[in-house]
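The aim of this short unit is practical: by the end, you should be able to scan a pair of folded records and say something sensible about each. We start with the first protein, listed as its amino acid sequence and then its structure tokens.
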Amino acid sequence: MMERRESMSTFKKKILLAGMVAIFAFVATIGATYAWFTVGQSSTIGTIDFTIQTSTSLMIVMDDVDGDGFVNGETFDAAFLADATNYVTLLTTTMIQSEYDYTDIIMTPVTTADGLAIVREDDNPASSDPATPGEYLEFSVWILSQDKDVTVSLMDLSVVSNEANTPEQDVIVQAIRLSAKSTDNADDYIFGIDKDYDYVYDNLDVILEATETSLIGLHGTFYGGSVVAAEQTNVLLNTSTVVSLVANVAEKVTIRVWIEGWDADCNNNALNADFAISFGFIVKEVIE
């Protein structure tokens, strides 16, 4: 009888331990699938469409991202950049992918303190190299102003979920961030459809208030579009300056697009979501 009691007691302890393990696993799963995605899972870039438009005498051309010395079949050098006939007013997905083929990039949650250096949740540098495969998009364009010195800002940022996505996957729109940085501009800006950074990772790793405040403060103001308050304006002089151009002298602007891991909408629902992203460059002010 004593042996049976001991056996039953041991059996109950095993059941209790198993139940505790199951509860822990369930709680861990809830935390891990909310943001930063579950370990081992990722969001393929899929059929992302990317278009960049210019207006009001501005011209644009892709940089020699692949390093082969050619763009659009022409030798990429100072003479190429000085020739306005090499530029267009609209860069399409096809044009971008001719120099930077991002179809094999696996977008995973990352973050940044300045819109320039992109890091993973473990603080290791993220990659934009498709061969790695990369975890975010990064490529450069050259912008040219004909005849006049101008300052240039971002306009009409739009992130649209692909029609093939499920309603749950539409949250990808909120988690996408973009930065546009030129070498002549000391200011760093982040642009997005919202600026939610208040996510608590696994209920353990809380984003520091100072970091959250800094990230929100980096959000620039662009012209037009429909986003949260204080990030868009219909007054050009109120927009953030991305680049300043001297007439007929091209400047390089580096574009980065990532999925913000601290955004509460960066969760497993966004896995494999496709989206279209577009924006433009517009003359903010003519410098006489």
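Turning to the second protein, read its sequence before its tokens, just as you did above.
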Amino acid sequence: MITKRKGNGQTECYGCKQKGKFALNWDSFLYTFDDKPYCFDCLMEKLEQLQQENQELKEKIKTYEDPEDLTLMFMYCDEKAKDKIRELKKQLEDKEERLERLRISAIGHAKRELDLENQQKEFINYLENMLDDENDIFSVVRVKDVLQKYKEIIGGKYER
């Protein structure tokens, strides 16, 4: 299961670290999958890797179910081959379930990220629009302070 990490600290992305890349990220930008922290890009790579593994398992099952020569036919009849087929099918089912949960979770996280970004833009626009009313100079100064602090917090994103 994928969960969005919370907190104000920093953690290394497991995927980036494995690749030897700079891995330090704010916890609020990371996801936990298999008890390891991943950035969104590494999480998507993990999803592709699982899809590839699923495809390979499907091909292995097909090889055992549709033998092309007598050697494979004898293997198919052997009890070990039948056990292997059951094992591969179970692995495939488990990976497909996990892949679907990962896909649904990733889509949900991406939508929440987009919603949050839109809310931030809307709030900045609201504060900047308040600055247009220069009749109340005390409010304008106060709004400027709030707007500046907010922009510092989100890293200067979304400025006009």
